[in-house]
Design a protein that fits this description.
The protein is α+β, with helices and mostly antiparallel strands and 220 residues long. It has helices spanning 29-34, 87-90, 106-115, 120-123, 169-179; strands at residues 4-9, 12-17, 21-25, 44-48, 53-54, 58-59, 68-70, 72-78, 94-102, 104-105, 129-131, 135-136, 147-152, 155-161, 187-189, 197-198, 204-209, 213-219. The strands form four sheets. Strands 3, 4, 5, 8, 9, 11, 12 and 15 form an eight-stranded mixed β-sheet that branches. The protein has a five-stranded mixed β-sheet with strand order 6-18-17-13-14, with no helix packed on it. Strands 10-7-16 form a three-stranded antiparallel β-sheet. 37% of the residues are buried. Bound molecules: magnesium ion (MG).
Length: 220
C-alpha cells in the first residue's frame, strides 16, 4: 500500500505523495449498457482510500467478495491544485497519466446499490486502486486520440478510447474542482470502457497505452 508513487519525466524520477483518489463512474456508454445502468446527468463520483493503492506486480483479491471485476481506466495525477478550475485551464493542472484498475467487488456493489448504501466496501478495499507507472501528460500527445488496452492471460478484454468518454477530462476536472478543492497529488480515475469481468487467482493482466505504458499484474 504505497502512498507515494513515482513520476518519471525523461531520465528523472520524482516521488509524489498521493492525497485523494477520486473515481468517476458511468463515463462510457457501452459500459453503462453492459451493467444495465442509466446514464447520469452529472458525473458519478466516488472516492477510494489511499490504502487501496497498489503499484504491483501482485494483486491480492479481498476475502469479503467472491466476484471482483477488473475495470481498466485512464488515471490522471493532479500536479497543481485549485478550486473552480475552468475547462480551458483544466489540463494545466494535470502532471501525469497512468493506467489503473478500479477493482470492484461486483457482488457487494450490486447489493449496496439495491439497498441504496455507499460503495466503500465494494470499491475501496486493499489493492482496489492498482496503478501503472505515470508518464508526463506532455509526453502522451493529443489526449482525445489516446487508446488503451487490457489483456488478461494474453487475450484482449478491454479497449478504451478517450474520445468515447461521456464527460471529457477537462469537464471532469472542472466539475470535481467545484465540489472539492483539488490538491497536488490527487488521482482521478476516469471510468472504464466495456468488457469488465471477474478476476481469478492466477490471472495475468497487461495494461498498455501504446508507446507509453506497458504494465503487468498477477492475481495471487
Ligand atoms: Mg470504474
Amino acid at each position: 500500500m504505497p502512498s507515494e508513487i513515482r513520476l518519471q519525466t525523461g531520465n528523472s524520477v520524482s516521488a509524489v505523495r498521493i492525497e485523494n483518489i477520486f473515481c468517476i463512474g458511468r463515463n462510457y456508454a457501452a459500459h453503462i449498457a453492459e451493467l444495465g445502468n442509466r446514464p447520469s446527468e452529472s458525473p458519478v463520483v466516488f472516492l477510494k482510500p489511499t490504502s487501496a493503492l497498489n503499484t504491483g506486480p501482485i494483486i491480492d483479491l479481498p476475502a469479503h467478495s467472491a466476484d471482483v471485476h477488473f475495470e481498466t481506466e485512464l488515471v490522471f495525477l493532479v500536479g497543481k491544485g485549485g478550486k473552480n478550475i475552468s475547462e480551458a485551464d483544466a489540463l494545466a493542472h494535470v502532471s501525469g497519466v497512468a493506467l489503473g484498475l478500479d477493482l470492484t467487488a461486483r457482488d457487494l456493489q450490486n447489493q449496496n446499490k439495491k439497498l441504496g448504501l455507499p460503495w466503500a466496501t465494494a470499491k475501496g478495499f486493499d489493492d482496489s486502486a492498482s496503478l501503472s507507472n505515470f508518464v508526463p501528460l506532455s509526453q502522451v500527445g493529443e489526449l482525445n486520440s489516446l487508446e488503451f488496452f487490457l489483456h488478461v492471460n494474453g487475450e484482449q478484454r478491454q479497449h478504451g478510447k478517450v474520445c468515447n468518454m461521456i464527460y471529457s477530462v477537462p469537464t471532469l476536472i472542472a466539475y470535481l474542482s467545484q465540489v472539492f478543492t483539488l490538491q497536488a497529488g490527487d488521482l482521478i480515475y476516469t471510468g472504464t470502457p466495456e468488457g469488465v469481468a471477474a478476476l481469478k487467482s492466477g490471472d495475468h493482466l497487461r495494461l498498455t497505452l501504446p508507446g507509453q505504458i506497458d504494465c503487468e499484474f498477477s492475481v495471487a
